[in-house]
Structure formats: structure tokens, C-alpha cells
Design brief:
This protein is an alpha+beta fold. It is built from 1 helix and 5 strands; from the N terminus they run βββββα. The chain has a domain of about 70 residues. Strands 1, 2, 3, 4 and 5 form a 5-stranded antiparallel β-sheet that branches. A hairpin with a 2-residue loop joins strand 1 and strand 2. The longest helix has 20 residues. The protein is elongated. The model has no long low-confidence stretch (mean pLDDT about 80).
Length: about 100
């Protein structure tokens, strides 16, 4: 004997209005280990910024982005990480 099954209707979705994020792009030039880098920072939400290294403005490299609550902080975190990476590569037997 077949069991009767019912499907309950889902409630109508409440869609929240979207929050506009600025299209502003900040660019920082940093000299790290004797090389000049262009760091590009864009807003990804109201208080979250994403920084990445670019070779040509607007075209990020494969390096993962770094995030911060301000453009300066996101760029600073990326710059500090790259400085540590160069220091470690220059001295692979010692910890940095």
C-alpha cells in the first residue's frame, strides 16, 4: 500500500535590498626587496576591502587577495606578507 506524502509550500522569500559598494579603486606603489609593486584595492562590502598585486592596472595576478577594513589596511597586510615572503626566500635555512 502506497503512503500518502505531502509537500509543504515554501514561504515567499524576503529579498533584502542590495547595498551599493563603491567602484572606487585605490592604487599603492610599494618597493619591496628592490622591486616596484602596484597594489590595487577595491571595496567588496561596506567595511571590507580587497588588495591584490597587479601587473597591468585592473588585471590582478594569481596571488590571493588580502582583506582589511580600510584600503590602507588591506594594502599594508599584502605588503607585509610579501616582505616576509622575500625575507624567507632570501634566507631559507633560518626562520624569519
Amino acid at each position: 500500500m502506497a503512503t500518502l506524502r505531502t509537500i509543504q509550500r515554501a514561504h515567499k522569500l524576503q529579498i533584502q535590498p542590495s547595498t551599493n559598494v563603491t567602484a572606487e579603486v585605490y592604487r599603492f606603489e610599494e618597493s619591496i626587496a628592490g622591486r616596484l609593486y602596484l597594489i590595487e584595492v577595491k571595496a567588496v562590502s561596506k567595511d571590507r576591502w580587497s588588495a591584490c598585486i597587479v601587473r597591468v592596472p585592473g588585471v590582478p595576478t594569481a596571488l590571493m587577495p588580502f582583506y582589511g577594513p580600510t584600503p590602507d589596511e588591506a594594502a599594508r597586510q599584502l605588503s607585509q606578507w610579501l616582505t616576509r615572503a622575500y625575507a624567507r626566500a632570501a634566507n631559507p635555512t633560518n626562520t624569519v
